Amino acid sequence: CFNSGSFWDKCDFETNLCKALPEFNLHPGWIRINGQSGVGPPYSDHNGNESAYFLSLSSEMQSSSATLRTNVFLPTDEEHICQIRFHYWVSQMSGMLMVGLQKHSEDTVTNIWQVSGELRNQWNVNNITINSTKKYEV
Question: Which domain, by its residues, includes 124?
Answer without folding.
Answer: 72-137
